[in-house]
Amino acid sequence: MIRMKETKRTRSLITFFLSALIVLLTLWLLQRLLVPKYAADVVEGALVAEYYQEENKDFDVIFVGDCEVYENFSPVTLWEEYGIHSYIRGSAQQYIWQSYYLLEDTLRYHTPQVVIFNVQSMQFSQAQNEAYNRMTLEGMEWSGSKVKSILASMTEEEQFLDYVFPILRYHTRWSELTGDDVRYLFQSRPVSHNGYYMRVDVKPAENVPGGQILADYSFGERAWDYLERMVQLCQAHDIQLILIKAPSLYPYWYPEWEAQIEDFARERDLPYLNFLELTEETGIDYSTDTYDAGLHMNLSGAEKLSDYMGKILREEYGVPDRRGDPQLDRIWADNLAAYEAEQQAQYECYGMTPQQEGG
Amino acid sequence: MLFTSYEFLGFLVVLFILYYALPSRAQWPLLLAASYLFYGCADPSYLLYILATTGTTYGAARFIQKNADRQRAYLKAHKQALSREEQQAYKARQKAIRRRWLVGGLLIGLGNLAVVKYTNFVISNLNGILSALGQGEPLSFVTLAMPMGISFYTFQAVGYLVDVYRGTVTAEKNPFRVALFLAFFPQLVQGPISRYGELSQTLYAPHPFSARRVARGLQRMLWGYFKKLVIADRLLPAILVLTGDSAAYSGAYVLVGMFFYTVNLYADFTGGIDITIGIAEAMGITLPENFHRPYFSKSLKEYWRRWHMTMSFWFRDYVFYPVSTSSFMWKLTKFCRSRLGSQVGRRVPVYLSSFLVWLATGVWHGASWNFIVWGLGNFAILMISEELEPLYARFHRRFYVDGALWYKVFQVGRTFLLVSALKLFDCYACVGETFRAFGSIFTAGNWHIFWDGSLLGLGLTLTDYGVLAASTLLVVCVSLAQRAGSVRDAIHSRPYPVRFALWYALFLAVLLMGAYGIGYDASQFIYNRF
Lengths: 359, 530
Description:
The structure holds 2 protein chains of 2 kinds. By secondary structure, chain A is an alpha/beta fold. Helices cover 48% and strands 7% of the residues of chain A. Chain A has helices spanning 2-34, 47-50, 67-70, 75-82, 96-106, 130-137, 144-153, 160-164, 166-170, 179-183, 221-236, 255-268, 279-282, 299-317, 326-350; strands at 61-65, 86-90, 114-118, 240-245, 272-274. Among the domains of chain B are: 6-209, no CATH class; 211-287 and 442-521, no CATH class.
């Protein structure tokens, strides 16, 4: 009798655990299937996650910011020209608090010598859009920084649980699944080159709209708070923070905004480079170096900016030339090959020759 | 905390764990604390209203009970000393005292409800009259909180008080138990309207953990979530479009909106009740059923015995019977019989009581003329049906249609159409607009919307229509299967892999096809607003 009871209990336990296993496994698979893969379109959503795949994260230079960093600087050029080992932790419309927490997250892996932050995001004190939040936050590995970044970013309609279990957010995608969702079910496709999103096509900047009159040109308190925290974080880790404003002609960069950043940089003794005012020094030509009429640089523009930035990093901040390190040489050789292959593929795609681009 | 929110699900998980982890004597106090937490989360000020109702109901019921006990003791002690007449006189005096307490309790409870729910409706009508007379400044509307579910707990309080007065239940001595009876969170906001005599049997009893019972409760909840999230909330955007602009969406669109709303209301309300009953069941508490496959009714009379049953029975027991058996009605019946004959005299009290019940039902549903006309519309159809009953019977006998399947289907279809048409009063802003919209079905002639793709412009995609069709079909099939008994019992009798597959498939259907999260407005259950 007792043995029968024990057998029944064992059977019940096995049934329970098997059922739980089936549930967990199917839910995990479904979640993998339903989350966007950012492999073919809107590849910006894949940028943040790619960082964790890097074999050697001992980067000397880290860029943080929005599209004005991940489309305007090429780490491959920095390596090729100066041997600078760098990475861009950029994402679409990355808010300053997200930049701060991405930097905090980065410091879990290594401490760079220089951090370059693009100040365009100072204009926002609140998250504007859930889709952009997702593109930055989903790619982060789970850590205290990710939790804080989610809590700081969520719009009113968002729920923290949707980040923990993305299937709750993407449960309706079953009706719009594509081949990519199956193809990249378990493995993603690399879409960037150390965080750089490459575009080789050209669309000259013509008739760029000016700025509209704003009621208040002051940056928000929250933006200032996170900038201050970023400065302190860098100081605490003995990192040189460089503030930049990329040479994107739109969204409009107001003189009032410029003055506030200049004052802040002066007060905190931070270097600040406004590339909008350095077009002669960088050699940026808005008729050939942008692919979307001045919003972002194309490959030619990004390489020019990187070349200029690399010189400053080398000469003024002594960022070392890491060429000759066998591991890094091997990694960067692979990076370069992928870089050139994509360059070639894009030229073919757009029916261009390298000469037709600004280079 | 909406039933469909993550917060509510988290609240339930914590509650279930505590409920079965704590000693069983702590279960009902825990439920009271949880219920007040749930209600206070909606708006802390709501607690004041329910506390006031609880206090007055408890107090009045206790006074009535004490008086009844005292009367019993007195009569027992003085049985020999008092003549029959003296005993009758004493009883009458005591009954009058109890009646005063009852009326006082009812006035406070129902007055509370009337003030918060109907003050602005009265002001709006007074303003209309003043404006028509061209006199005076319009009265200002007042800002009053309309506590969620106040109609439900007020009705429970009234039922309890009347039952104590009638002596069918003994007044509860513990005020906290009365508080839980009125505030039990699953049923607090949309019913079912429970009777103290029934609910108290399981509400305060200890409930040791039972995996089977918890599983059954969760299954019932899952079915409710399926109806609410997959059907009701998916349909809602289209209904809002269709009824938001009656000029743009007239004719065939009204017909579409009418059917959409009928399905939506069923899925929303029965889904909510399934969740409610499921939660209670998982904790060992039995709540009354509120629906019995209402859309399979063959007449409006039958429909009202199967739709929102606890409300219908409440009105029957606490309005219809007291009114129709009141001394005034006896006098009226007598008067009518003597003046108008026995046929008419017999009908007068029934029809007058029914009229009052339907007027009250309409008013209970909402402070607007739409609901009043809706209630009286139901009354008119029911009374006409009643009068035509002999004619129907003759027709049935003459054409041998009684019992024929095709005729049953016809009756069900006819009742469904009738009920759907009456529900239109829920959808539009005023009575005139409702009639205009309904009339346009027959005059607009825009039937092309059914095949020219217009229906895809209502906020529903082809996928949505597919999901809605499949899930509605499933609900219909389950309803049909329920004729043979409980579907859950039928599933339970199957081998474990089959059971597991069926319930897990339902869970996945809710998870993947539910209208929740970003892109969907978390919508309150329709009956929460009553």
